Amino acid sequence: MYEYHVEGGFPIKGSITASGNKNAALPCIAATLLTKEPIILRNIPDIEDTNVMLQILQSLGVGVEKIEDHTWKIDAADITTSTIPAQMTKKIRASILFAGPLIARTGKAIMMPPGGDVIGRRRVDTHFLALQELGARISVEGRFEFTANKLAGADIFLDETSVTATENAVMAAVLAEGKTDITNAASEPHVQDLCNMLNSMGAKITGVGSNILHIEGVKKLSGTDFTIGPDFMEIGSFIGLAACTRGSIEIHGVRPQDLRPLRISFNKLGIRWDIEEDTLYYTSDHQLKVNPDLGGMIPKIDDSPWPGFPPDLTSIMVVVSTQVEGTVLIFEKMFESRMFFVDKLISMGARITLCDPHRAVVSGPSALHGEHLVSPDVRAGMAMVIAALSARGESRISNVYQIERGYEHLVEKLQSLGAHIERVEVK
């Protein structure tokens, strides 16, 4: 086991290159099951979640070869089993993304209920709804068993705008017979990456980037060479870190269109950046001050499905708000346990009122001090890292496995920016 030892109070400064989008890499790895031909995936982040997904492929009899850093060749010519090992399923929620491709390719998928972050109730009902509409039969007695003689196109209306359910439906539908329409589909950049990858394999998907996807089923898909887009969650986290530490940063390899929803919410806190081509520049000469709504009202930062502000960054915004002059309401609407980490921020000196499981009022700036913290999930864990680097004194952060599931080589990147942080083995 490892923990982070952090000495806070030092501005970060320097440049990094954005990692590949974890939430795009995971479904794209699963989608390699849809063809017998080799696929090359580039810009895959070197994190625990992608490693587990690649291990699941290997457990299914798929050939997995690392060509170079962040680049993998995957050959699913032969799939020897449709059962995912229980210990792997429990490690990662994204394991459910293998359901759609396995059903489409083999007519069967067997797995335990998926694990992952504990941030509230995370339904899988929408996955079942979509796959049943396409012709799958599902048993949930102790484990999930999906079977289908054949898949047929359908008119699907999702009961929630679920990213992973949309991805599962798309992966099943591309090899289904006939036409599929998916309404109330998620449209996040990672969903777009998956659709673009599938189209490069010969799928016929239109409406990419909208909430209505049209899919003409094809008989088979080919191999491809596809590059995953940048991780805008990581980019938003490092912008927040630079602001909180009164530092500056250059981030290379960004995709400007992915950052438009982030810009609106960060601007409410006086945080602005410039972008030239694919490089983002944030400097330390900004006045971090809440911009009130019309009439002097307290502004609200709230999440919603794309193109709204992404829920994975609400934890980050809570910490950033503690270092900004003024009061802001953070409204996390999608997961009822995501805000429960704020008690640790309060113990560090933050002025936060947790109104209910979804809403927190934050008043700043607050002088934070070091504390022993325990990471409950990927994003709250990164929020704690930002808080520790902004605080006076020393902090220890335990359960860093959760953080490293989503942030590639985090300690090395932070050290390159001048952060005082060490990864220490604990017995």
List the helices and strands and how they pair.
Layout: E1 2-8, E2 13-17, H1 22-31, E3 39-42, H2 48-59, E4 63-68, E5 71-75, H3 86-89, H4 99-106, E6 108-111, H5 125-133, E7 137-139, E8 144-147, E9 155-157, H6 163-173, E10 179-183, H7 189-200, E11 204-206, E12 212-216, E13 225-227, H8 232-244, E14 248-252, H9 260-267, E15 274-276, E16 279-282, E17 300-302, H10 314-322, E18 326-331, H11 342-347, E19 351-356, E20 359-364, E21 372-374, H12 378-390, E22 393-398, H13 401-404, H14 410-416, E23 420-425
Parallel strand pairs: 2-14, 3-13, 9-10, 17-18, 21-22
Antiparallel strand pairs: 1-22, 1-23, 3-5, 4-5, 6-8, 7-8, 10-12, 11-12, 14-16, 15-16, 18-20, 19-20
Overall pLDDT level: 94
Q: Shape, please?
A: globular
Taking all Cα atoms into account, the compactness measure Rg is: 22 Å
Number of strands: 23
Main β-sheet: number of strands, strand sense, barrel status? 4 strands, mixed
Alpha-carbon distance between the termini? 7 Å
Q: Uncertain regions: pLDDT < 50 for 5+ in a row?
A: 116-121
Oligomer: single chain
Give the number of helices. Answer: 14
